[in-house]
Design goal:
The structure holds three protein chains of three kinds. Chain A is mainly alpha-helical. Chain A has two domains: about 1-75, no CATH class; about 85-405, no CATH class. Helices cover about 70% and strands about 5% of the residues of chain A. In chain A, strand 1 and strand 2 (about 40-45) form a beta hairpin. In chain B, the strands form two sheets. Chain B has a two-stranded antiparallel sheet. Chain B has a two-stranded antiparallel ribbon with strand order 2-3. In chain B, strand 2 and strand 3 form a beta hairpin. In chain B, helix 1 (about 1-30) crosses helix 9 (about 230-245). The longest helix of chain C is centred in the middle third of the chain and has 20 residues, at about 130-150. By secondary structure, chain C is α/β, with parallel strands linked by helices. In chain C, a hairpin with a 2-residue loop joins strand 9 and strand 10 (about 240-245). The chains are: A mainly alpha, B mainly alpha, C alpha/beta. The interface between A and B is large, with 58 and 70 residues.
């Protein structure tokens, strides 16, 4: 009897796998099987049926394996859940240890033996994304507003600094607060009309807004330089000391002031510590905000807007502050970006950037600070080291976003500590 | 005046394409209450499948135009709707009971995935297609400006009309359509009276994808080029059309599509072509602020 | 029963319609401070709609709702939902519980004092700088929360996510959250729904405690007649959006119109 049932089950699984294979065949036969190629004068095709055959076979066995695994989970309790819980535990006791290790590594990184220019450059990039991730986390993770145009505020910050420097000869440090302010202002201007909307409308409006900013930057040639961008953006100085081999007449340079040999590495390391400091301040700020009434109101809003209105929280204003503060950090990060690159153009501010930042927040765990760090290191750092796989990067990001929503919708680090406690 | 008429014709043609995609947004929103962000990508896949089928038919030596058009249309609808089905099954169905943002994020992930999937499979370069249908009627010719209604435009408008009538029949007159509308109104109740909700939702995605693939094919014919990125902007515009018409309403989606097409064309013709994408977006924001129910939509009563 | 307490709420000729269908039709009633006023009626009688109008979630078609608050008077029909909660101090609960499930029990209560805390934190600026005035206010709010948690036997769960509580505890927590707003009018939408008899009698005790010890009027929508008859001072009966009877529990019990509405009229 049991034998028969097993037999039936197996038949069912086999049928299921066959169906999957059939659908895979239909999905791949044209797009995998036929490749369009540019031939002289016209578009031609090449065939590569082997891809189709391979993917069909992969789908068949993949499905069988999947069904088999789900069977295992049902039989032996939840093995995978165990793994998932272990990862989550980073939020518990191990959290302090992880944080300490991460902070120490971050501070000592330029001094470590394996750190060359390349490593520090990547670390700087990772930190930029960490800062952006923390900023977006206010909007998405805490307030629960899906912002798909976060890169617009990053662009506003970059261009504010670049244009102020270009037209008024202002330095990085003078422009930094303005960049944040302008970005926050844009957040308010955009947010005010649209934050009353339902969550999914907000997502698409922000998506459109990101695109619009880019279109404007691209087409307002006289002011922004259009697709040529802006070059010659000043580099940040260390308390008035610039990082130049030959300082301008009558001024000191970093290496002359400290009487050390000039090295181009100095500036790289300085930029690294600058973004580390900025990211660190962002983090402190966000942690602090979370424990203030405004932070709790954001989280309450994420949980249930109707309930919020019933206890007297003004939803529009509360969302607006989240939006503006999130934008402000993007603005700061943007002016750092402009200063580090020395050149910006609209190409750096495409939807892909927004998607990457969102992926970092979503994968790391919405609302989790340390999750953002881990996700940034993995998503940005790791992919930078595997440059040859560059073209698979966004493909994997997209797939990961789907997978994480299905598998662990709260992100890898889903532990949430209350902001106030009664019992210690 | 002649210029105006020409723009009107162009706008309606473009609007028909937007309308077809907008219907997909509207239907999916109606039944599961989410914006299917990957719908623009389904349109893009439809365009690519059409392109590949056209090239295949060419290589087989089939060149009788009506046959080519019909075969491509049917193939595109069949294969693209399977993509619609697969996407729903993989990325949305497991999330029906998840938290509010989960299906949205999953949809965005899916959209990013599909774009890059197509880029990897078919390359990043723009794919041009030799014009298949040329010529047209000269409506007005006063010496300096000729108003032309091209055969292509006629085909686009006729195809759209036929397809919309066909699918309206399915939605309003068949058992399938009744079940679909029942689910849209009250999913739990529909389940209680014995409707298979999963199947019905799948069917909705299939219909939406089929319509988007028609739009993809028509887009390919009209512009003669496709690339992996077209789904993004066209998707936003079609969504705007759906919102303008009143999301959830099918005639509204079509009407919204036509309006967006007209607005875009007139904006480009009379103001600036660089900022044509800004126009559609500004309309989206204005509609959402001043008339969130759209032109033909019904107001949502907040359940407390 | 003659009321010695001051008038708290005056609802006058309130009407509300949904796409032409009158859900509340010309309803008037009063509620008094330190009184439990119950609104009862069969399903679909328009009780929750009255609440939604009172708390600003719906804008009524016509009619006025006045809340008297010491010297001040609030025209509720002109105010937005969150302003009603914030300024007029009307708190409410929901038929299907609406807590902040991922936030801790204590946080749920602290959020209820959002506006006071915002002022104390100087709209976040002072709070960021760690001003003492804010810290003191926060302590005060936590003390208030602790008082109510003790009252409702939820103290031991204070640091757990609200979503992890049992159904009955969540119902209690929602009332607790409303009380942490220090309201003058508490609107409870079917608080006993889904509770077992022991929990129901707990609830009655809690409501009586609130009525005795705090300056607040209670409006109560409830189907459980043992609760309604046991604790209300005054009952308003709605049917098909119209008021069909009002009076103290004894008179409602015998009112033929009410019996007909509940049991169906005999033809």
């Amino acid at each position: 009897m049991i034998q028969r049932q097993k037999q039936n089950n197996f038949n069912k699984e086999l049928k299921d796998a066959l169906l999957t294979a059939l659908i895979t065949f239909a999905l791949t036969v044209l797009l995998f099987g036929v490749r369009t190629v540019q031939q002289p004068g016209k578009l031609g095709i090449e065939t590569r049926w082997s891809w189709v055959i391979l993917s069909v076979i992969a789908a068949f066995f993949g499905r069988l394996f999947f069904v088999f695994c789900t069977g295992l989970i049902n039989n032996k309790g939840s093995y995978f859940q165990g793994v998932a819980d272990n990862i989550t535990k980073i939020g518990g006791t191990v959290k302090i240890l992880t944080t300490v290790i991460l902070v120490l590594t971050a501070i000592l990184l330029p001094l470590l033996p394996f750190s060359d220019r390349y490593v520090i450059d990547i670390a700087t990039l990772v930190l930029t994304y960490i800062m952006l991730g923390w900023g977006l986390n206010i909007v998405v993770g805490l307030a629960g507003l899906l912002d798909l145009g976060y890169v617009a505020f990053y662009a506003v910050g970059s261009y504010s600094f670049a244009l102020l420097a270009h037209y008024h000869d202002l330095s990085f440090w003078v422009c930094l607060p303005f960049a944040g302010l302008f970005a926050a202002m844009f957040g308010v201007i955009l947010g005010f009309p649209v934050l009353r909307l339902r969550g999914d409308y907000l997502a698409i409006v922000t998506l459109g807004f990101g695109e619009i900013i880019r279109v404007i930057l691209l087409n307002w040639y006289q002011f922004t330089g259009g697709p040529d961008g802006i070059s010659g953006i000043p580099r940040p100085a260390f308390f008035g000391l610039e990082f130049k081999r030959i300082p301008p007449e009558g001024t000191a340079s970093f290496h002359t002031f400290f009487s050390i040999e000039y090295s181009s590495l100095h500036r790289i390391i300085f930029l690294y510590y600058l973004i580390l400091l900025m990211a660190f301040i962002t983090n402190l700020f966000v942690i602090r905000l979370r424990k203030l009434p405004i932070g709790r109101a954001w989280e309450a809003l994420r949980e249930d807007e109707t309930a919020c209105r019933s206890i007297g929280i003004n939803p529009t204003n509360t969302k607006l502050t989240a939006f503006a503060l999130g934008a402000m950090f993007a603005g700061f990060a943007g002016s750092f970006f402009a200063s580090r690159q020395g050149f910006i153009s609209p190409e750096s501010f495409t939807f892909t950037e927004s998607a990457i930042i969102l992926a970092i927040v979503v994968l790391g765990g919405m609302g989790s600070q340390i999750g953002v760090v881990i996700a940034s290191i993995v998503l940005i750092g790791a992919t930078e080291f595997f440059r040859e796989l560059e073209e698979f990067r966004m493909l994997v990001f997209g797939a990961l976003m789907v997978a994480i929503m299905i598998w662990k919708p709260k992100g890898l680090i889903s532990h949430r500590a209350p902001t106030v406690r009664l019992h210690t | 005046m002649e210029y105006f008429i020409q723009q009107l014709i162009n706008g309606l043609t473009l609007g028909a394409i937007y309308g077809l995609i907008a219907i997909g947004y509207s239907m999916v929103y109606g039944i599961i209450g989410m914006i299917n962000f990957a719908h623009g990508e389904i349109f893009m896949i439809g365009a690519f499948i059409s392109l590949i089928v056209v090239l295949l038919l060419n290589s087989f030596g089939l060149s009788w135009l009506p046959a080519v058009l019909i075969i491509v249309l049917v193939m595109a609808m069949v294969f693209t709707s399977l993509y619609g089905l697969a996407i729903e099954r993989i990325a949305y169905r497991p999330l029906r009971k998840s938290f509010r943002l989960a299906p949205l994020i999953s949809a965005i992930g899916m959209s990013i995935f599909l774009q890059n999937y197509m880029q990897l499979l078919q390359g990043a370069r723009v794919k041009p297609l030799q014009p298949m249908i040329t010529g047209g009627f000269t409506l007005i010719d006063d010496g300096d400006y000729t108003v032309v209604l091209s055969f292509l435009q006629i085909i686009i408008i006729i195809t759209t009309t036929i397809i919309v009538i066909l699918f309206s029949f399915i939605i309003y007159k068949t058992q399938l359509g009744r079940e679909q509308r029942a689910c849209a109104q009250d999913r739990v109740m529909a389940e209680l009276v014995g409707i298979n909700v999963d199947t019905t939702i799948s069917v909705t995605f299939i219909i939406g994808a089929a319509l988007a693939s028609v739009a993809g094919f028509l887009y390919l014919l009209y512009y003669g080029v496709v690339d992996f990125f077209i789904g993004f902007l066209v998707g936003i515009k079609a969504f705007t059309a759906a919102v303008l018409g009143g999301i959830g309403s099918l005639p509204g989606a079509l009407l919204g599509g036509l309006l967006i097409g007209l607005i875009e064309v007139f904006w480009s013709a009379y103001f600036s072509i660089e900022y044509k994408d800004v126009a559609a977006f500004s309309i989206l924001v204005l509609v959402l602020i001043f008339r969130p129910t759209g032109l033909l939509g019904r107001p949502e009563i907040e359940k407390v | 029963m003659a009321n010695t307490e001051p008038l708290l709420l005056k609802v006058d000729r309130l009407s509300m319609a949904f796409s032409g269908l009158l859900a509340v039709d010309d309803v008037s009633f009063n509620a008094y401070n330190k009184n439990i006023t119950a609104i009862i009626g069969p399903n679909g009688a328009g009780k929750t709609t009255v609440f939604n109008c009172l708390t600003g979630f719906y804008r009524p078609l016509s009619g006025i709702m006045l809340l008297y608050h010491g010297e001040k008077r609030f025209d509720l029909q002109r105010m937005k939902d969150f302003r009603i909660a914030q300024k007029a101090k009307v708190a409410r609960t929901f038929q299907n519980i609406r807590l902040f499930p991922n936030m801790s029990v204590l946080e749920n209560l602290v959020v209820a004092q959002h506006n006071a805390l915002m002022r104390a934190s100087w709209f976040t600026v002072g709070g960021l700088m760690g001003f003492r005035s804010y810290k003191n206010k926060e302590k005060e709010v936590i003390e208030l929360a602790k008082y109510w948690l003790t009252r409702t036997d939820l103290v031991e769960y204070a640091d757990l996510p609200a979503g992890n509580l049992s159904y009955g505890a969540q119902r209690k927590l929602e009332i607790t959250r409303a009380m942490c707003m220090e309201p003058v009018l508490l609107c409870l939408d079917e608080p006993a729904a889904g509770l077992n008899p022991a929990e129901s009698s707990d609830l009655c005790e809690l409501l009586l405690f609130i009525k005795e010890n705090h300056r607040v009027g209670i409006l109560l929508i409830e189907h459980d007649m043992s609760v309604v008859m046991g604790i209300s001072d005054y009952i308003v009966v709605l049917d098909y959006g119209k008021k069909i009877a009002e009076g103290p529990p004894e008179s409602i019990r015998e009112n033929p119109a009410v019996i007909a509405a509940y049991l169906g009229e005999e033809e």
